[in-house]
Amino acid sequence: MSIIFVLLVVLLCLMAMIGENRGVKSFFILLMNFCSFFIMLKAVAFGIDPIKATILECIIISSITLFFINGFNRKSAAAFISVLIVVIICILFAYKTGTGAKLQGFSNENPGSAAYLSYYVHVNFSKLVTCEILIGLLGGIIDVAISISSAMNEVFVNTFTISKRDLFRSGLNIGRDILGAMTNTLLFAYLSGFMPLLIWLNMAEYSFADLINSKLFCPEVFQIICSGIGIVLIIPVTAAITTSILLFNIHTINKA
């Protein structure tokens, strides 16, 4: 615990030195997001539907991250709406495909862990897989959404007469530059999380067919693919929403 506290202090000092006031604000927002996540876990434990709790958690985290750091403005609003749209799409897609793939329960490789747990938890594990995907994806799509909307806002401010089509294309081009880096970030974040599992399966001399059909391995690959889909979807959605919001103000002014 003392080591964790020291690391938190180091993180706070670095964020304060490099990010100044915004860095300090980001640190405390990070703590707020962690607390809200812990409250969501407690809510699920008390019987609230996991998907409903996760949607509410996504709204809270997105609101805190976007509006508290970047302020209440057009680019934050565009990013927030875009994140919510992609979250809903990913929930529907991940739950339907995850249920069809039967990604739930414990596998034959972890009977030791399951032996000490109660099976009467009354929680839908298919929904938990969906929630895990959304929480893992949320930070990435928030980052991409605010990056695209901020850049598009700068393009719009400096090129006030830009057409709707050109502004939308600018958003797509910005998103394409981010796409490769962000998908790799998510890929290696997930890979590092189950790297010990991959080593253990190889040492146990699992064949490739056994590996890709393992109940331990499939959910991880499923999460990577769904996260990649979410990152891809957030680009055109953010470009479209930001274009509409920015040009809506112009049309309103012209009508007035």
From TrEMBL:
<feature type="transmembrane region" description="Helical">
    <location>
        <begin position="55"/>
        <end position="72"/>
    </location>
</feature>
<keyword id="KW-0472">Membrane</keyword>
<feature type="transmembrane region" description="Helical">
    <location>
        <begin position="28"/>
        <end position="48"/>
    </location>
</feature>
<dbReference type="InterPro" id="IPR014564">
    <property type="entry name" value="UCP031503_TM"/>
</dbReference>
<keyword id="KW-0812">Transmembrane</keyword>
<feature type="transmembrane region" description="Helical">
    <location>
        <begin position="221"/>
        <end position="248"/>
    </location>
</feature>
<feature type="transmembrane region" description="Helical">
    <location>
        <begin position="78"/>
        <end position="95"/>
    </location>
</feature>
<dbReference type="InterPro" id="IPR012507">
    <property type="entry name" value="YibE_F"/>
</dbReference>
<dbReference type="Pfam" id="PF07907">
    <property type="entry name" value="YibE_F"/>
</dbReference>
<keyword id="KW-1133">Transmembrane helix</keyword>
<feature type="transmembrane region" description="Helical">
    <location>
        <begin position="178"/>
        <end position="201"/>
    </location>
</feature>
<protein>
    <submittedName>
        <fullName>YibE/F-like protein</fullName>
    </submittedName>
</protein>
